[in-house]
Specification:
14 helices
């Protein structure tokens, strides 16, 4: 789960920071692939005959200039240009790239049959997207992206291959979102223009975060956002969508129930069971889940992220107790690194700071952005004078200071990494500081995290992480919680999603062993 949150930090943090002139690259705000700087002045140019440019590239293969920085977009693949696209995205299917043909033709309508078309989130953690089609109607559940593998040089994000949807875009009735993490909403500004901007539905915070994405791409006027009430139903062609709230690491998360002419399809989204949620988190609507168990659900698309982790995940209430204790007993300055998407965790820190008379300073672009959005929408509540940007930090006593920052995974460009390297523009770590890493190490990130911890310790800081105290918990349910969800819904078919193949197979075996499901 933490891998997803780290991806979100990368997406929002970018390759530069306004906090430190030292770390700003010479081409701030732009991303270049290898060799592109050399050829930039030729990029996008067409010959007078309208064919290929001098480098042999067809128009749909060229990278556009970013309109946010003064460039004018070129036509691509015979389609009208859409403003934005400051990052380069690449489609992927089974490890291969593909470029949809501009002459895609609609597929024949299959009468009386329901198509379930996963476009991402299977055998991978990221780019979650599922399409349901019945005759002339298509509804899309989520529209995420993922970050590239190490061997995908020059690629910023990977988005689902939407060729099928592009060919049948006139049948699309809407996009319905489970929650606001980028692996579920990050593909919106890349994909919606290809589909002629179908309407998008989601809860208030989810839509607020999705709107921010489209604003960055100058698409807000073209995108039709609709805030849903989880108590209400929405009709999309022959489909009717209803919702049930789930607990996750971001508020306003829901599971989606899609009534189709041949039966109900349920998508859990990302979930855990937390009987003592904190802040603006809602209780999971267990009554609705149990009711589904009596309604002959055809298929349950269930996340498999923690299908190998035994037992039950820790409640956020336990994390809150630990953080309150640390903040209350610590005499010196406190720096807490967490994911900016952990809105509930941020509320815990703000509450602990206010209770103990500490002023909060925020470092990291993604952290500032998400705190602003969540507070404007009412999902973070705090006195205005409690929180300030890190650039305003000066002449505040250490025992009256709490700094919230990005960088809990040791990311080289993060604010915490710059503090550890003694390169942060506003914070110098010193003897007596307490650093809290409110996250779990992602597999593969151990070395950079250890490097940051070593550097912070050498500077005199006391570093606290999850191996020492319960300062973090996952937003995804462990094995007991997955069994609980399956037993509530009682589906005819189970489709494990949101995970690598071994995670999905582990959920399959778990359902056979504990839920009585047959292969």
């Amino acid at each position: 789960m933490d891998k997803l949150d780290a991806w979100m930090e990368r997406a929002l943090e970018g390759s530069s920071s306004s906090e430190s002139k030292k770390s700003a690259p010479p081409n701030k705000g732009k991303s270049f692939t290898k060799g592109e700087k050399r050829n930039k002045k030729h990029s996008g140019k067409k010959r007078k005959d309208g064919k290929q440019d001098k480098h042999g590239k067809k128009p749909h293969e060229q990278k556009r200039k970013d309109p946010e920085h003064g460039g004018k977009p070129k036509k691509q693949g015979g389609q009208a240009p859409h403003k934005g696209s400051p990052k380069k995205a690449k489609t992927k299917s089974d490890g291969h790239t593909s470029a949809p043909s501009p002459t895609l033709k609609p597929t024949p309508v299959l009468r009386g049959k329901l198509k379930m078309i996963p476009l991402g989130g299977l055998d991978e953690v990221g780019k979650n997207m599922l399409a349901l089609e019945y005759e002339d109607d298509i509804v899309i559940l989520d529209m995420g992206f993922e970050f590239p593998d190490e061997d995908m040089r020059g690629i910023d994000y990977v988005i689902p291959d939407t060729s099928y949807l592009e060919a049948n875009k006139k049948r699309i009735r809407g996009v319905v979102l489970t929650h606001g993490h980028l692996d579920h909403i990050g593909g919106i500004p890349y994909i919606l223009p290809k589909l002629d901007f179908p309407p998008v539905y989601g809860t208030k915070l989810t839509i607020g975060l999705a709107k921010r994405r489209t604003e960055e791409f100058k698409q807000e006027r073209m995108t039709k956002f609709n805030v849903i009430d989880p108590k209400e139903k929405i009709k999309l062609g022959k489909f009717t969508c209803s919702f049930f709230r789930v607990a996750h690491s971001i508020p306003d998360s829901v599971g989606i129930v899609v009534d189709t002419p041949v039966g109900k399809v349920v998508d859990t989204g990302d979930f855990k069971f937390d009987d003592t949620p904190v802040g603006s988190q809602h209780h999971a609507e267990i009554g609705k889940m149990k009711a589904l168990g009596t309604q002959n659900v055809l298929a349950l698309f269930c996340e498999a992220t923690n299908a190998l982790k035994p037992g039950h995940s820790i409640s956020e209430r336990e994390v809150q107790k630990t953080l309150n204790e640390i903040v209350g007993k610590t005499e010196g300055r406190i720096v807490v690194a967490s994911f900016s998407s952990q809105i509930g965790r941020i509320q815990q820190l703000l509450d602990a700071a206010a209770k103990n008379g500490r002023k909060v300073f925020v470092s990291g672009r993604s952290m500032l952005t998400n705190i602003k959005i969540a507070s404007e929408l009412g999902y973070l509540k705090f006195p205005k004078e409690l929180v300030s940007e890190i650039k305003k930090y000066k002449n505040v006593a250490d025992k009256k200071t709490l700094i919230i920052t990005t960088g809990s995974q040791g990311e080289a460009i993060s604010a915490l990494a710059r503090m550890a390297a003694n390169e942060h523009a506003h914070i110098k770590i010193k003897e007596g500081d307490t650093i809290i890493l409110s996250s779990s190490p992602i597999i593969g990130n151990e070395r950079p995290i250890h490097t940051v911890i070593n550097r912070l310790t050498k500077l005199g800081a006391n570093v606290i992480h999850n191996a020492l105290m319960d300062v973090h918990t996952s937003g995804h349910g462990n094995r007991d919680e997955l069994v609980r969800m399956i037993n509530y819904i009682k589906p005819k078919y189970l489709v494990p999603i949101h995970g690598e193949f071994y995670m999905r197979k582990a959920l399959m075996l778990l359902a056979q062993e504990k839920c009585g499901m047959k292969p």
